[in-house]
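Our preliminary data section would be incomplete without showing what the modeling component actually yields. Below, a chain of 217 amino acids is followed by its predicted structure, encoded as tokens that our downstream tools consume directly.
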Amino acid sequence: MRNRSWIVAAVATAGVVLGATLYAHELETGHADVDVAAPKASKVPEVSKVPKVSAPERCVGTRPVGGLPTRDDNSPMYRLAGHIDALAAGGYAAVYTGLSVNDRTQTLDVWRIPSTRFDADVCGAALKGVTVRLHDSDVSRKSLDKLSDRIGDDMKRWDGTFRMREVGVNERGFVRVGVDDPDKAEPIIKKAYGAKNARYIKVEYVDQSSALSAPAG
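Predicted structure:
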């Protein structure tokens, strides 16, 4: 599986790949994005549950391969992935969470806040030979990028207690924080960014800092 994740090393700033271009439009969802205010705003209510909508769990592409512009990779799957990126950078910024592609099975997994319009546009664009699987989330990529940036700005904040080594957004809907001592770091990090944000933070052990990378499929 090749994941479209963004990881920032301790020696780098927590940059945003996709989030910098995203802007919110009013959509059918009433979802409240992740709180990114100062950590001391502690009495903010939890993110509201997002109601489920009728949507296919998967769809199989029927559109001709030439139906979408060529991207860096000329395959139908990567053409579709580029098209979904464009949708996310436009009117669907408030519902899009992330995606990953599987070269072996020609499957594209998409995480989004449930939206019948978004699902219809994605499945309507799916090219022959590509299977799309749609997964529910309750947070937008835009909000996760903000939270990731904020944590990345604190990369050196806890030096001497533990060492933060990587920060990046996972396409499934959380911010992954790589540290040298997860048992010590997790309660400190989650408390620092508040209960509302803690549900979107996953603290894991990382042996050493690494540059931007993506697991091979």
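The chain has five helices and nine strands. The mean pLDDT is 77. Preliminary results of this kind motivate Aim 1 of the renewal.
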